[in-house]
Amino acid sequence: MHPSADRRLSTLQRHLLPSSPPTSPATATSADSLQPSPTMASSSSSVFAAVPQGPEDPILGVTVAFNKDPSPVKVNLGVGAYRTEEGKPLVLNVVKRAEALLLHNQSRIKEYLPITGLADFNKLSAKLIFGADSPAIQDNRVATVQCLSGTGSLRVGGEFLARHYHERTIYIPNPTWGNHPKIFTLAGLTVRTYRYYDPATRGLDFQGLLEDLSSAPSGAIILLHACAHNPTGVDPTVDQWEQIRQLMRSKALLPFFDSAYQGFASGSLDKDAQSVRMFVADGGELLMAQSYAKNMGLYGERVGALSIVCGSSDVAVKVESQLKLVIRPMYSNPPLHGASIVATILNDRGMFDEWTKELKGMADRIISMRQQLFDALKTRGTPGDWSHIIKQIGMFTFTGLNSDQVAFMRQEFHIYMTSDGRISMAGLSSRTVPHLADAIDAAVTKLK
C-alpha cells in the first residue's frame, strides 16, 4: 500500500476509535474490517482507472463552453433548440393547455404503455407525416411505433434493418447531423456517404448526389432529410426531389427519411412533408423517423415515432412484431407523458389549429433572423456573397466560415458555434444580430 494511503487509514482509525483500549481478538477483527479493499485504497486502483477521458460531444460541448464563459455579450448559436426574441426557451401555449387537460383528467393512470407505445399517438403521427388520405395508411401498410424522439427512432429503425434487411449499407449525406453515423454504426449497419453540399456555391451538389446514388449498390439504404437539412439548411427543390425519387426507385434503393422539422422549416406541415409523400404515393416502401422536439418544443420529453411503409398489410403486421423484439430489450416501452401531449393536440381540431399558428410563428421568426443577418452583413460590406443565408431554410445555416474563423469569433466576440461554421438561427435575436454581423465581418476580413 502507498504510504499516503497508510496515513489516511491511520487518521480514519483515530477518528473512528479515538480512545479505544488495547484491542481484544474480537475488537481486532472489528478494526480489521476497516482495512480498505484493494479497489478502495485509492482512485488509481479503480477497476475503471484505465478508462480514457471521453471527448465532449462536438455540438453539446459548445453549450458547455458557453456556460463557462462569464462574458455578458456571449451568444450561443450551437444548440439546436428554439429561443424567443428574448433568448429564452419557449413552451408553446397549446402544449400548456394540453398538459392542463391531462393534469385534470382524474382517470389517467401511470401503467406501462405497450411496447409499441400509445396507439393514438402512433396513428396520428403517421397521418401527420404521410397525410390523412395517404394510400399507405388506407391500405394498412404502415407499421408505426413510438420511440425516444428522433434519435431513438433512427436507432430502432437501423437495428431492425441490420436484422431483417438484405443490404446492410446505409448512405448518409455529406455533411449530415453528427449523430447519424454513430447511430447507424452501433445499430449494425455499414455507413457510407453521398455528396450533398457544395462549399463553392454553399448550395446543393445535385449532380454529385445523383452520381453517388447511381453508383450505390442495388438495394442500399439511403438516409434522406425530409426538410431543413441539418447542418446545411439546403434542401432539394420539388423537381430535384422527383429526380431523386425516380433514380432511387429504379435502383431499388430503400429510403430512410429523418423528419425533425416538419412545419418548422417553412411554417407549413404539408409543404415540409412533400418529399416524403412523393415517395409514399408511388406505392414503394420506406422508413420514416419523426421527432416532436422542435415543432412542439418537446425536447426533454423525448417524443418520436418510427413508421415503416410496407408492401402489404400482412407484411406490416410482421414488421411491427419484429420492431417489438428490437424495442423490448432496448428500453422495454416508451414514456407516456410526452406522447399524451402530442395525441391530445393532434386529436383536437381547435388545439391543432392553435399549434399550427404557433408553429408558423416560430418558423417566421427564424426566416426574419435570416433576413436581418443578411441585411446586416450587406450593410457592413462584408466580403463575399452571403445570399445563401436567405436561400437556406430551417433552424440551421451553414455559414461557410472555417474553423479558424469560428475560433476567432469565440475568442474575440464570445460567439459560440460548431467548428464547421453551422449556426442555429433560432439562437439569434434582433438584439444579437448586429453583434454576430460584426464578428463575421471581422473574422472574414482578418482571416481569409
Tally of helical segments: 18
Q: Structural class, judged by helices and strands?
A: alpha/beta
What is the level 1 CATH name of the largest domain? Alpha Beta
Strand arrangement within the widest β-sheet reads 2-10-9-8-7-3-4
| Fraction of residues in helix | 40-55%
CATH level 3 topology of the largest domain = Aspartate Aminotransferase, domain 2
Shape: globular
CATH superfamily of the largest domain: Type I PLP-dependent aspartate aminotransferase-like (Major domain)
CATH architecture title of the largest domain: 3-Layer(aba) Sandwich
> How many runs of DSSP E, i.e. beta strands?
13
- Gyration radius, in Å: 27 Å
Structural overview:
The protein has two domains: 60-90 and 364-446, Aspartate Aminotransferase, domain 1 (Alpha-Beta Complex), CATH 3.90.1150.10; 112-347, Type I PLP-dependent aspartate aminotransferase-like (Major domain) (Aspartate Aminotransferase, domain 2, 3-Layer(aba) Sandwich), CATH 3.40.640.10. It is built from 18 helices and 13 strands. It has helices at residues 3-16, 25-32, 60-68, 93-103, 119-130, 135-138, 149-164, 180-187, 206-215, 238-250, 269-272, 274-281, 313-327, 337-347, 349-380, 388-391, 403-413, 433-446, and strands at 75-76, 142-148, 169-174, 190-195, 197-198, 203-204, 221-225, 254-259, 286-291, 303-309, 396-398, 415-416, 422-424. β3, α8 and β4 (190-195) form a beta-alpha-beta unit.
